[in-house]
Specification:
Arc Repressor Mutant, subunit A, three-stranded antiparallel beta sheet, two-stranded antiparallel ribbon, 39 helices, 65% helix, coiled coil
Length: 863
């Protein structure tokens, strides 16, 4: 059947590499049969033609032959010419070489690259039935010379190649050196005597020399490395062609070369490659062989996750990669003559193993830091996809100890290399690994970090020590975090330095050092520049800001807590800003790619900040500020526009509009109901209801928090009472207030003094009689109240008109004011806060106050 397919298969075989691999095993058997069949066809045609000539014309053919005898003879000659498969392949080879030569004349490297690949596919078939043709040796030698000339001209010339030519040039440059290495002996002969090289072809055929090794496909090259030896039970691994496979120390580098070449290509069985490398490990003898195998093996395991359906490494593959990375670092620690570093030159001679010279180190291309980072990323990705409420998540989280061991051990290895090489790439590797270590520490309590550090140093050999964090010299966890951050502050810049600063602030806030965390945040100026950083750093900034707010609340600094948490919690997008979830809106314009990126940025569950607790703290802080403010502004028309928390006011208004309000069912209802009791003056019910919320038990010291809340309710209840009933009193006994709110007289006196100093209360303290004396101001009439309201509305209309004018004239109004002075009603408007800003409390005042905004009328009323 092959003789029928042969005639039309030559073109398809030369144009499709897939069919070459499919039919590569059959071609060796078919070549001989094709040649025999072609010879049989020639002999048969000759016999038929001779018999016809002897017999003469018969029947109708005699008349046709007389009519056009010359034409039929030409047709017969054309039909009877039959070429063998070898001749056809040589013709194709010559045609491809001619195309390459023509493309060289016009400098078309895109065509040269394409035809060069085609030429190498064709030579594989040609060498199966004979030696390498001389024309092929000449073509690849001339192409290499032309390539070197072109590269030399490009270095001198100022004119650049176009994109397609440059791409083709680079492709040929990468492949031709490796390709010509197999035929170097013949190429050298050709270059020594170009004229006599083809003349000696007949003599070489008579006394054929050893032909260079033919180019065959990868599977056949692997089979040539195999030796048939069965195992103890009499079984052996059988490859294609019935050959048994065995891996020897001499063939390790060749196997690794083939595996590396197949990376990134389709239809590559990575699981089979992993099994092959595991067998190579068993026969590896030298440290260099083991290092090369581990580097390739770990990379191949990581390739599995990029092509898997789940898009993250399985637990088995991750643990295997972690064990292999640990072993690799151990081998490097024991053999200091071998250094794995980025940018090292690759060893290309697979037949000979490199030997480091005495006193020198052999550099092997690779990156231990990149392996650790990828291992960390894969663990994070798997934790993102596992349900956090299952035992599988807890079991997977326990692998963090193994990962942290590798991070610290990789840090020690990179530090040792940095002693001899203080270059910028080496320093960058140290910064990256120290940053990874810090990111596994900053969000954990000190007790957890202590256990993690202790277990890590036990697993590390005693003769190894760190320069940055010496063994046994760092007594506690805060010192460890401070040491890591200080190192990054001194030796890094940009994003790593900013992230180190945020990690330190987060750690301080987590451990109740509010003032240090606040001062560091303000001194870093990250509030002004955070928009210029990447998204992950912005997420870390938001988390740090929230942690500072929680720290202020635990310290009893209610105003600071509400002010810090206002922008994150008031936006209603806490999940997105903290990377703890995605809110899918109904009419969202987010593309699938953007949604995928958002999901990749999500933090694992064990790093989450409790959003329900965060909302409860924000609403509680807003309640302590809003309820006294509402009592203060109830009798002052000029103060009604003041709002501290729109979110809290909206929830309170919604609750008041309800026809029936039952007992609180969740945390939010509990805070709102407590606010209503506090506004009504029943501080005891407000305190009991607020302390009954179960969310407080999630905090570190719930009893201390509840005591602080009870004290705050007593103080704010006193302030609310004074704001509400001050117009109805002339004097009020401090002892009576102490009995009503169960506070000491000294505490009440200090609260009233602060209110008086902040202009929140028009009163004076009578220390002789231990009482408060209220000053009666001039009460506004109805007409005066309406005038004040009208003045405020007029001022707001004026501001809105000015804003509209500025937008329409594109800033011309501002230019006019700069030239001619401010216009009528020239009232300056201050700039707003920046994104995510940490706003300091107003100095000398608390929210509220009895200042008038009615202009001249207000001043007259005050006088």
């Amino acid at each position: 059947m092959s003789r029928f397919f042969h005639g039309g298969a030559s073109d398809s075989e030369s144009s499709s590499s897939d069919e070459e691999e499919l039919y590569s095993d059959r071609e060796e058997e078919e070549v001989s049969s094709e040649e025999e069949s072609s010879e049989e066809e020639e002999s048969a045609d000759e016999e038929e033609s001779s018999s016809e000539e002897e017999a003469g014309p018969r029947g109708a053919s005699a008349f046709l032959r007389d009519a056009s005898e010359s034409e039929e003879s030409e047709d017969e000659e054309r039909v009877t010419v039959v070429k063998s498969a070898k001749d056809k392949r040589l013709e194709e080879l010559e045609g491809t070489i001619k195309l390459i030569e023509n493309a060289e004349k016009i400098g078309d490297w895109a065509v040269i690259s394409t035809e060069f690949d085609k030429l190498n596919r064709q030579i594989t078939k040609v060498t199966q039935s004979g030696p390498v043709p001389k024309i092929y040796i000449k073509a690849i030698a001339d192409l290499e010379d032309f390539l070197n000339e072109t590269i030399a001209k490009q270095k001198v010339s100022t004119k650049k190649m176009n994109a397609s030519n440059a791409k083709g040039l680079n492709a040929v440059k990468q492949r031709i050196k490796k390709n010509n290495k197999e035929y170097q002996t013949e190429i050298d002969k050709y270059r020594e005597n170009k004229d006599g090289y083809f003349e000696a072809a007949e003599e070489q055929e008579a006394a054929p020399a050893a032909a260079p090794r033919p180019r065959v496909n990868r599977v056949e090259r692997l089979e040539t490395l195999a030796v048939s030896t069965p195992d103890e039970e009499g079984f052996a691994t059988v490859g294609r062609g019935g050959k048994t496979l065995q891996y020897t120390p001499e063939s390790i580098l060749k196997h690794l070369r083939l595996i590396i070449e197949s990376r990134g290509k389709k239809n590559t069985d990575r699981v089979e490659q992993i099994k092959t490398m595991e067998k190579l490990l068993e026969v590896a003898q030298s440290p260099y062989q083991r290092i090369r195998i581990y580097l390739t093996l770990i990379s191949t395991r990581f390739d599995l996750s990029s092509h898997s359906a789940s898009n993250y490494m399985s637990s088995e593959q991750w643990n295997s990669a972690e064990r292999e990375l640990t072993t690799l670092i151990s081998v490097l620690e024991e053999n200091r003559d071998y250094i794995v570093t980025e940018g090292a030159e690759e060893w290309e001679d697979d037949d000979k193993q490199p030997q480091p010279a005495p006193g020198e180190a052999l550099h092997i291309p690779g990156s231990i830091v990149s392996f650790v980072e990828r291992l960390d990323d894969e663990l994070t990705r798997s934790l993102q996809h596992i349900d956090p409420h299952t035992a599988e998540y807890i079991e997977r989280l326990s692998d963090e100890q193994k990962l942290y061991n590798n991070i610290v051990r990789a840090q020690l290895y990179v530090e040792e290399l940095g002693k001899s090489d203080k270059s910028e790439p080496r320093q960058d590797s140290i910064n990256r690994i120290v940053m990874r270590r810090l990111e596994h520490v900053y969000f954990k309590p000190s007790q957890v970090v202590s256990i993690l550090e202790e277990a890590t140093w036990k697993a590390i050999p005693e003769h190894l020590d760190s320069v940055i964090t010496p063994r046994g010299k760092i007594s506690d966890v805060p010192t460890l975090v401070q040491t890591l951050c200080n190192y990054l502050f001194q030796n890094s810049d940009g994003i790593i330095k900013a992230r180190a600063m945020l990690c330190q602030i987060f750690f301080l806030a987590l451990h109740d050092h509010y003032y240090r965390a606040r001062d560091l945040m303000l001194m870093s100026h990250l509030t002004e520049n955070i928009a210029n950083f990447d998204v992950s750093t912005q997420i870390l900034f938001n988390r740090t800001l929230v942690q500072i707010g929680l720290c202020a609340f635990r310290a009893g600094l209610i105003y600071e807590a509400q002010n810090t948490l206002g922008e994150i919690c008031g936006s209603g997008r806490q999940k997105e800003l903290l990377a703890q979830g995605i809110i899918m809106q109904r009419y969202s314009t987010v593309s699938p790619e953007q949604e995928k990126l958002e999901r990749q940025r999500q933090l694992p569950f064990h790093m989450h900040i409790n959003l329900e607790l965060l909302e409860c703290i924000y609403l509680t802080s807003s309640m302590f500020l809003e309820v006294p403010l509402m009592a203060q502004t109830s009798s002052s028309p000029e103060m009604k526009r003041r709002i501290i928390s729109k979110t809290f006011r909206r929830m309170l208004d919604y609750n008041e509009r309800q026809v029936f309000t039952g007992p609180p069912e969740n945390t939010r209802d509990g805070v709102i109901m407590s606010a209503k009791f506090l506004a009504a003056g029943d501080w005891k019910k407000a305190s009991s209801l607020l302390n009954s919320i179960k969310i407080w038990d999630l905090m570190a010291q719930p009893d201390k928090i509840k005591a602080m809340l009870a004290q705050q309710i007593q103080e704010e209840g006193l302030r609310t009472y004074l704001f509400t009933y001050a117009p109805f009193y002339d004097t009020l006994s401090i002892a009576t207030l102490a009995e009503m709110f169960e506070l000491s007289e000294k505490k009440i006196s200090s609260i009233i003094s602060r209110m008086i100093s902040h202009d929140e209360l028009a009163a004076a303290l009578d220390q002789v009689n231990n009482a408060i004396v209220f000053r009666k101001g001039v009460e506004l009439s109805r007409l005066q109240s309406q005038i004040v309201t009208l003045a405020d509305k007029s001022m707001s209309l004026l501001e809105s008109n000015e804003k509209t004018l500025e937008q329409r004239t594109q800033g011309m109004a501002n230019a006019f004011q700069r030239e001619h002075g401010p216009g009528r009603g020239g009232r300056g408007r201050g700039g707003g806060q920046g994104r995510g800003g940490l706003r300091l409390p107003q100095q000398g005042r608390r929210p509220g106050g009895q200042q008038f905004s009615g202009g001249a009328l207000g001043s007259a009323i005050k006088a």
